[in-house]
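Lesson 9: reading folded outputs for more than one chain in a single document. The general rule is that every protein is listed as its sequence immediately followed by its structure tokens, and records are never interleaved. Here is the first one.
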Amino acid sequence: MHRLLFLLIALSTIAGAQVPRATHAQSGATVTGVVQDSISGGGLAEATVQLIGAEPGSQFVRTAVTDMLGRFTLDSVPVGHYRLGFFHPILDSLGAEAPLRDVYVNTDRPLRADLSVPSPARLNAAICGPRAVADSSGLIMGSVRSARNSEPDSGVAVTAEWLEYSIGNHGLSQNHRRIRATTAGNGWFAMCNVPNTGTVALLATHGTDSTDVIEIQMPSNHFVRREIFIGATRTVTVAGATRPGDTAAAPSRRVHVGDGRLSGTVVTVAGEKPVANAQVSIIDGPQTRTNERGEFTLVDAPAGTRMLEVRALGYYPTRIHVDVVAGAPPVLVALPTLRAVLDTVKIVASRLSSPDAGGFDRRKRMGVGHFLTPDDVARFSPIVTSDLFRLVPGMSIQLDSTGEKLIKLKGSFEAWCDPSIFINDHNMSFLTLDQLDTWVHPGEVKGIEIYRENTVPAQFQVGLNGCGSIAIWTK
């Protein structure tokens, strides 16, 4: 592709030297078209389009740059045979070359000739083979750059992980699947045979540089292209905090920091109004709060591609990928209101009027997990629902550095981990413990299921956090 570009530039230089400037005003056909981004479905802006003479000895060259809609125009094209192509950085990130198109101009009448980035199916077949397309497996590809200077980084280990379920003689089982790729000299990588739907966790590492674990939702075309930045991090220990009169001790936590800086604004989805006092944090990293204009600045942030989490009272929490690099533009985060989410929960809950509707009794008979019934609730007489978790072996109520109460589950690979929380079969992990106690009163509990790691049923498994799940059913 680069050889083609250099050839076209060389031909353009020769043509400029040998063809009088007035030739651009000569009569001829006008060639127009659109460079289509087959991946995003829109036009490709700022693509360099070139038309060169295909006949022996021809030195004809025309160049244009596409507009925001991917459109281009090449004028004063005389009768003849030509080849049309384009160049764009997206092709480097795909490790692909756009095919040349033959164009025949026979009259002075306008001619339409469109170009496109290779489609996801074509890329999948070219990189992974036709069998991958037939099996509808997914493809993740892209490039890795250094957060220090944005240069391509070779030799980077890129790992993808996901959960895979299988049904055998002993019932439903889940397995962690993992594949790894290493970036080439231009930072490019490709990962074939990933799931075509669901969530895939992506991590890039090279020496002491790394990214966060990036959660990628596979789209309907089974193809993801992602540019990733890796950077250095430092680990510091932040002491836990306690509230007066609370005997629960918060454990110290390890936080990843760096020399990066990230700024942005948090607004509402409806009306784009600023959200003040929202908590903004890099996952396992520094955190801050927005001002009255919804603005925030995170300092000491680890450089590279990170996961940003934004929470605000009354709003649904949001996680997005951000690139903490020098010169990065401010990010804009839009939060949907919690009312819309909770209205949906009420509709779902009305259909699940009892735990039995969600299979509570069936799972209880299987004996996998820990189960609490209304009789257990009556016997324990909890003041708030979260008091029930203090009585379950392997569970704990702890405080974080800000004094907020958290549910913790004993894990196999770390002392404590954060379980997913479901209420009436709806994922409500975004609720704080105080909000959960407000949402579910002990008298409304009709059943609670608690699962650890590999015992989690499929319907209560979310993400790849390696922890368990808590399912609460209400009357």
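And here is the second record, again sequence then tokens.
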Amino acid sequence: MMRALLFATAALVATPAMAQDHSDHSQHTPTPAPAPASTDDHSQHGAMDHSTMDHSQHGQMDHSAMGHDIMVEIPSGPPPARAFEGPEHAADLYFDPQEMAQARAYSRTSHSGMTTGTVLVERLEAQVADGHDSYVWDVSAWYGTGTDKIVFKSEGEGEFGGSVEEAEAQLLWGHAVGPFVDLQVGMRVDAEPDTTAHAVVGFAGLAPYNVHFDLAAFVSDEGDVTARIEAEHDMRLSQRLILQPRAEAEIAAQDIPERGISSGFYHVTAGARLRYEIAREFAPYVGVEYATGDEPDRVALLLGLRTWF
């Protein structure tokens, strides 16, 4: 125990001696200091006064030398002549050009030139009105390509228990004059009330807001000029329930006494049909229609069928 106390006392006495003033090193041989890693003195960096530094020119620094200049000049003018070198179709560089020409011709035929045909029964209905119950048909069919097709139309009406009052048929050539519009020219033959032939020219297709229209002018073999405008719009209330407003107007350029027709709008109908697609190709409907013109004004309840194949 005594020995431990003596060692502790000696350590305490030696400590002040180690803290003595070494400012006079002339009597000692200096120990060489290791070479600094850098010649810059960064010892005062933490104490630098950044408030006196001028940062106003920082935004004007040239960053192009730092790899930030990514502006690419877009050439102007026509394509260079080199762009038109080689074949018109790049595939001809790797495949037999004759076989590729046949493949392209087949693609045009199978897509844009493909022939299709459809029969559409737009209206096959009974009209129940006060004192005048009748039936109506409105059928069309076409066969051809997206550009040219043969079109057949037939419509008419009659009274239940009586004879057919009006009946007509049209045979037309349809040619696309726009993405959604066809020019239609041909002939129309009326079987009732009188047998009459007409030249036909018109347009049919899809107007803005998905309005289907059919506009035609007729010139009879007697020189009478008439026209007809039909428009309808399908409003899909659900996947199978569709409300279809529809309007039709017939116009005469002159009086036709033998048919009891006066010039101007001589027959106008407007109504709506609500159909349910049991299948896409089979849709019964109910509706209401108002008619005015060549007979007393009337309101009729409609019950019919729309189908296509």
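What the second record shows: The chain has two helices and 13 strands.
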